[in-house]
Amino acid sequence: MARVTAIRRYPVKAMEGESLASVAVDRRGLVGDRGLAVLDADGMFAAGKRGSRWMPHEEVLAYAARTVDDAVVVSRGDRAWSAGDPALDAELSAAAGEPLRVVAEPADAERPFFDSSPVSVVGTATLDWCRTELGVDADPRRLRVNLVIETDEPFVEETWIGSALVAGAARLRATKRNARCRVIDLAQNGVTETARFLKPLGERRDACVAVYCEVVEPGEIRLGDPVLPPRRPVRG
Fold it and tell me: Cα separation of 31 and 10, whole Å?
């Protein structure tokens, strides 16, 4: 039976995340995931890529965020700041060479801080395939996924798209493949080396690995919880 082998949450978008033994999932996604983000003066997300919502500020990737009680603490080396502290904004602005600030996702936000969907999932067999076939380290932290699920078939999670799966006490619906960007090649999220991941992934898998999910029913997910994927139709 498939099981949850890793849970990752990212209290501040683009920063290093935290590994959890359990997490509550509500309608929005993992509670506390990407609830904060770093914005520039134009309201663009500071990130490792450029796009309609993002500006490349790789400096932000060097910081880590973790949840302590009900607060978010951001650290770099032996220094730490509470999210909301003006000193943190000053630190990030100095690192980037332009004004940056940490903000919380508004309760009435039309577009959440997620890039696409609230929960991302990858299977261990998919990661193994990437290591073997692409010759990359395929550390799941490069993919910034929320859940790593034990699987025995590469990319089996893509066959779940359009269907619901049970993970612990939560039910998720897989919605689409996760198209990757240059961030997976960067040293970030606790991975200290760069990689050549994106180009061969693009050549072999349309640059897609992992799947996005939406929340059907909230609930708690714990390490080791069983994952019940959709049943495949019987062929006969």
Answer: 10
